Amino acid sequence: METRKGSGRPVASGEEHGRLTVSPDLTIDEREIEERFVRSSGPGGQNVNKVSTAVQIRFDVRRSPSLPEAVRERLLRIAGSRVSTEGILTIEARRFRTQERNRQDARARLVALVRQAAEPPKLRHATRPTAGSQARRLEEKRRRGETKAARRAPASPDD
Q1: Is there a domain that residue 157 lies in?
Q2: Is 102 part of a structural domain of the chain?
Q3: Within-domain flag for 62
Q4: Domain containing 18 — which CATH number?
Q5: What's the pTM?
Q6: Which domain covers residue 110, as residue numbers?
Q7: Average confidence (pLDDT) over 51-76
Q8: 8, 117, 122, 138: least buried by Cβ within 10 Å?
Q9: Could you give the maximum distance between any two Cα atoms of the chain, in Å?
Q10: To 5 degrees, how large is the angle CA 101–CA 27–CA 74?
Q11: pLDDT tens digits, residue range 10-54?
């Protein structure tokens, strides 16, 4: 019997490895996700020092064969400081008291991030300033110039 990468959970040798569904045309192989269970801070009573309920998910964004190049680049930009210099996205979940709920929470957050990166950004169409906005801008510039001119010392007549 083998263990699933990082999770320590046994997997029967003939079992199909699961896939996380991000969208109908984008899925992530679970073998690409490394899970680690660590001790969580916060509520839990005596249990808090004995049971590792917090989940840390690591996903290699740069080397993932599941992600198209455009999605990969957007994900690296969106994830920001959660991505290491090696391109590994780390998500920690410690909101709940049970390992399973924290695991589901971490996976849901990963899916949400990838889903956000999978959405192509809206194209911005260049527009021209309206005649009214241009007139207001020029009027404000004229007023500002008059204000500054009034601050200057008057020109001396002997120059």
Answers
A1: no
A2: yes
A3: yes
A4: 3.30.160.20
A5: 0.60
A6: 2-118
A7: 80
A8: 122
A9: 101
A10: 95
A11: 433 333 457 777 777 777 777 777 777 777 666 666 666 666 777
